[in-house]
Amino acid sequence: MTPSPIIAPSILAADFAHLADEVRAIEGAADWVHVDVMDNHFVPNLTIGLPVVQSLRKATSLPFDVHLMITDPERWAPGYAEAGAYNVTFHAEACEDPVHLAKTLRAAGAKAGLAIDRDTPVEPYLELLPYVDTVLIMTIKAGFGGQRFLPEMLDKVRDVRRRITAKDLSVRLEVDGGIAADTIARAAEAGADAFVAGTAVYGAEDPAEAIRKLRSLAEGVS
Ligand SMILES: O=C(CO)[C@H](O)[C@H](O)COP(=O)(O)O
Ligand SMILES: [Co+2]
Q1: What's the 141 CA to ligand 1 centre distance in angstroms?
Q2: Which of these is catalytic: 39, 65, 117, 176?
Q3: Which positions does UniProt annotate for substrate binding (predicted)?
Q4: Residue 107 Cα to ligand 2 middle (Å)
Q5: pTM above threshold 0.95
Q6: Residue 1: inside a domain
Q7: What is the Å distance from ligand 2's center to 195 Cα?
Q8: CB within 10 Å: which end of the chain, N or C, has fewer?
């Protein structure tokens, strides 16, 4: 039995000139706000960094789900925890000692998340599950919003869900990339219980209504 779904709209698809308003528009409907931090090094795209997160933190009470697509997360991730992020996710491909970084993040008051990109197998990381709070499976190649959902990534979701269940762990299993009304149920069926949606929420005429729809589709599976 998976816990009730978390819907985490990504502000990557929001209007960056009005971020505070865009986040307030989903208060009451969303569970977390997903913040994509890209450094034009780990991924070939550049978004926002710590000063924006620090300012935005004051604008809303929604928990921040920070997704770090950066090299050297050991250097930068603790700052996001100190800025009040609820969950800080770093990429397995960018981190030499994920257990150590997860401990550092927890000591700084945040949940710790481990992200697995499209071309990375999940198997070597299954033994790390007891040390993290969130596993984020990319259902696209990390770097850009608006890409097509890759259903073949769902095998990884199933593998992680199987291990969470077998070891009775309380780890959130998040999917990120191309999550929309026509894909969310498949991800939920595979065992995901946290869903990032950028384009499907901020590209909709009524973002709060889009979130409610996504939630009911995910709930319909459990
Ligand atoms: O991490 C990401 C990109 O690397 C974003 O969170 C993701 O792309 C969400 O946007 P969309 O729902 O439009 O795919
Ligand atoms: Co993301």
Answers
A1: 9
A2: 176
A3: 10, 67, 143-146, 176-178
A4: 23
A5: yes
A6: no
A7: 10
A8: N
Question: Do 112 and 88 contact (CB within 8 A), yes or no?
Answer: yes
Residue 55 maps to a domain: yes
Task: Supply the range of the domain harboring residue 206.
Answer: 6-219
Catalytic site includes residue 36 = yes
User: Which one of the listed residues 36, 65, 117, 193 is annotated catalytic?
Assistant: 36
Per-residue pLDDT tens digits for 165-211:
999 999 999 999 999 999 999 999 999 999 999 999 999 999 999 99
Q: Which residues surround ligand 2, an ion (CB under 5 A)?
A: 36, 67, 176
Binding site annotation covers 176? yes
CATH of the domain at 45: 3.20.20.70
The reply, when asked if residue 10 is annotated as ligand binding, is: yes
